[in-house]
Amino acid sequence: MHTNSVARARFVKASDQSLLVYFDGPERARLPDGRLPLEANRSVRRLLQLLTLRPLAGVRNLHPAYGSLLVDFDGRSWRHRQLEEKLRAYLEQLEEVGLPEARLVEIPVCYGEEFGPDLDDVARMHGVAPEQVIELHTSHVYLVCFLGFVPGFAYLGELPERLITARHKTPRRAVAAGSVGIAAAKPACIHAKRREDGDCSDGLRLPCFAPSGAI
User: Fold this and answer.
1) Is the pTM of this model over 0.70?
2) Which range in 37-46, 68-77, 110-119, 137-146 is most confidently predicted, on average pLDDT?
3) What is the mean pLDDT of residues 189-199?
């Protein structure tokens, strides 16, 4: 019997009919800068997969995030404590859950000049040439951990350590749709014009979101 996932999970009442499952317990070592490791997101996806394959009557919706899963439920069917006990039984089986094979999506990107106003600044900040920033950025495969914030916005997995870059102290008033950003340890594909406090070092040449789901 596996107990690791149970020990690492904690439960928080999010509302009168929702429960948050966090995978940030004391047994899960954080990275030096306080970030959760990708294993936390793997646990979220495993629990989501298990609840999708074996749904609980009275559970209305599941909302995954990077290190947590929000479970919405019908208050006529569950109380918080009852649902927590049931979810703990699911967590006992988490290590045995297989995840679906990921689909690889290649996104063409243009770097620098009018397409990436911050490329040179990021290079100077890390003491490397702009070409090395591009090489580091394109040599990595980024996991889509979850979607949120705005429709179609993908929260991507970790950047290479050498590209981790502090956010701007003052966010830009607007960032063009199609930009690729770096926000601390996370990359982002910005599909709609919005405010942004990360660095924009390049631009996409592929739409990242279509309401029809055709991408």
Assistant:
1) yes
2) 68-77
3) 56
Q: Does 50 share its domain with 116?
A: no
Kindly state whether residue 103 falls inside one of the protein's structural domains.
Answer: no
Contact criterion met (CB below 8 Å) for 181 and 175: yes
d(Cα 6, Cα 28) in Å, to the nearest integer? 11
Q: What is the CATH number of the domain that holds 159?
A: 2.40.100.10
- Where helices occur in the chain by DSSP H, the ranges are 4-8, 38-53, 80-91, 119-126, 130-138
Is 63 a member of any domain?
yes
The Cα–Cα gap between 59 and 56 comes to: 6
Radius of gyration for the alpha carbons in the chain, expressed in angstroms and rounded? 19
101-140 residue pLDDT tens: 889 988 888 887 777 788 898 999 999 999 999 999 999 8
Q: How many Cβ atoms are within 10 Å of 152's Cβ, its own excluded?
A: 17
Contact, 142 vs 187, CB < 8 A? yes
